[in-house]
Automatic annotation (TrEMBL):
Keywords: 4Fe-4S, DNA damage, DNA repair, Hydrolase, Iron, Iron-sulfur, Metal-binding. This is Type-5 uracil-DNA glycosylase. Belongs to the uracil-DNA glycosylase (UDG) superfamily. Type 5 (UDGb) family. The keyword Metal-binding applies. The keyword Oxidoreductase does not apply. One of its GO terms (biological process) is base-excision repair. One of its GO terms (molecular function) is 4 iron, 4 sulfur cluster binding.
Amino acid sequence: MAKAISRLVQDPVTDPAEVAAGAGRVAELDALVADCTACPRLVRWREEVAETKRAAFRDDEYWGRPVPGFGPVDAAIAIVGLAPAAHGANRTGRMFTGDRSGDVLYQALYDVGLASQPTSVAADDGLELIGTRITAPVHCAPPANKPTPPERDTCRPWLAREFELLRPTLRTVVVLGGFGWQALLPVVHDAVWEVPRPRPRFGHAAHAALPARDGGAALHLLGCYHVSQQNTFTGKLTPAMLREVLSQAKELAEVG
């Protein structure tokens, strides 16, 4: 399976920093993301997982490539996670799709009016997000769900360009977990938003308003515990807590 996946890549991207800034549209950026081969460890892992599979998904054809963002190109809200799950997005090709973390997230998005349906099981299941786009600082599934700092930094140009393209409409960002929070701060600072010193600290329900240097709208940054099973199974993050943060994001972004 890994060899078949490799053949799907027509023009592999080996250095995101060289090509990401040249993407003129979100769709073009997404296509480039899906062809990235910049991190050898992540390439090996994502393809190994796609070949060996999990028993429950042995009949599925895994995506096994970098997973681009998902949602409208004029989103007012962005949700930033960590990285694709090995048997979730790495299998289905769509962020937070096909795993229990996604089950929790999309149910909450539906409950607050930001998703057209409460489930996300496959890339062609008809789900649409409302004013919301989901992305991540690392686009490949990492071993043990732990990308390295160099892998995060190599992947950063994708997220930076995505935020630049979303700039005209983007008003609020919900960051799921401390890893995403730390990865996002330099991205927004290098774009058009001012990150204060000392930098805002991550925490559940943390809120920072970042003024824009271009004279446009400020960006509201909201923290939320990650929707990992470790957090949702233990009650560290409850559905009500997640809905509260998403509702705040919706209100700040004036969606709906």
